């Protein structure tokens, strides 16, 4: 079920903040919230603390803003803000700015029609891989009008079975310690800041809606696989202080 059907029924907790945990959109709520699941944090200063969460396979709303800011814990945070004009709810998806799902969104940003609703969906990888906790490893898809929004900065080479960078985006750099994607991240962050420098957020709901559960079937030929080394890292918000 998408966030749209749940968020107005939530009281308490971090009602407008969404993180990504175990490949799912996750909202921290108070114990006793209907439908919430408990989880014990395994990292960070709150290791061992029990938290209660709601999970969503999809989020839908109008794109209001995307920000990259310095984190209090080192590195940078990425925040995608959506607004559901039907409920009046504004919510922010927060993760590290170098998280593969966040950068996958940035790669689609130039192709997003900001006058229409954006649907963010989590889809289990077709290879069936799971993380160390047994959660399916997921890819983030950006959908509008029932169709996947295409990657603007990479094109899929079906023969080579890999992405090739286009439109000026640098490729990953091979170093003695492995592959480094800092230059690519910095490029995407800069392009994101340029995109929103003079951005005027939408002021009303689009003319079309989404399916009842917020999830659409994506034709396989419209959704080439994401690079494994980008999207197969575990998702955790255990470094977040709340």
Summarize the structure.
The protein is mainly β and 242 residues long. It has one domain (59-231).
Please give a structural write-up.
- The chain is mainly beta and 242 residues long.
- It has one domain.
- Helix content is 12%, strand content 34%.
- It has helices spanning 100-108, 182-197, 228-231, and strands spanning 17-21, 24-29, 37-40, 50-56, 58-70, 76-84, 89-96, 118-124, 138-144, 147-148, 154-157, 162-165, 173-175, 178-180.
- Strands 3-4-2-1-7-6-5-8-9-10 form a ten-stranded mixed beta sheet, with helices on both faces.
- Strand 1 and strand 2 (24-29) form a beta hairpin.
- It is globular.
- It starts with 16 loop residues before the first strand and ends in an 11-residue tail after the last helix.
Rg is 18 Å
- Unreliable residue runs: 1-15, 208-232, 238-242
- Structural class based on helices, strands and sheet pairing: mainly beta
The total tally of domains equals 1
Give me the number of helical elements: 3
Give the fraction of residues assigned to helices: 10-25%
Describe the sheet with the most strands. 10 strands, mixed
Helix/strand order, N-terminal first = EEEEEEEHEEEEEEEHH
Q: Give the overall shape, derived from the CA principal axes.
A: globular
**Ends apart, CA distance between termini:** 25 Å
Binned strand content: 25-35%
Mean pLDDT: 80
Q: Care to count the β-strands?
A: 14
């Amino acid at each position: 079920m998408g966030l749209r059907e749940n968020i107005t029924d939530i009281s308490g907790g971090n009602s407008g903040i969404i993180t990504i945990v175990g490949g799912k959109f996750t909202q921290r709520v108070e114990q006793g919230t209907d439908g919430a699941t408990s989880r014990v944090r395994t990292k960070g200063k709150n290791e061992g603390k029990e938290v209660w969460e709601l999970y969503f396979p999809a989020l839908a709303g109008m794109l209001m803003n995307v920000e990259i800011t310095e984190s209090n814990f080192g590195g940078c945070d990425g925040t995608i803000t959506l607004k559901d004009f039907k409920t009046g709810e504004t919510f922010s998806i927060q993760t590290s700015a170098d998280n593969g799902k966040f950068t996958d969104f940035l790669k689609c940003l130039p192709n997003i029609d900001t006058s229409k609703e954006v649907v963010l969906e989590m889809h289990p990888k077709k290879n069936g891989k799971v993380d160390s906790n047994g959660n399916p490893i997921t890819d983030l898809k950006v959908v509008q009008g029932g169709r996947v929004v295409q990657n603007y900065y990479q094109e899929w080479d079906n023969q080579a079975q890999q992405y090739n960078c286009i439109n000026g985006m640098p490729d990953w750099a091979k170093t003695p310690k492995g592959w480094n994607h800092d230059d690519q991240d910095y490029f995407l962050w800069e392009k994101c800041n340029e995109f929103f420098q003079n951005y005027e957020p939408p002021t009303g709901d689009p003319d079309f809606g989404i399916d009842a559960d917020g999830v659409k079937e994506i034709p396989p030929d419209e959704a080439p696989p994401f690079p494994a080394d980008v999207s197969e890292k575990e998702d955790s918000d255990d470094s977040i202080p709340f």
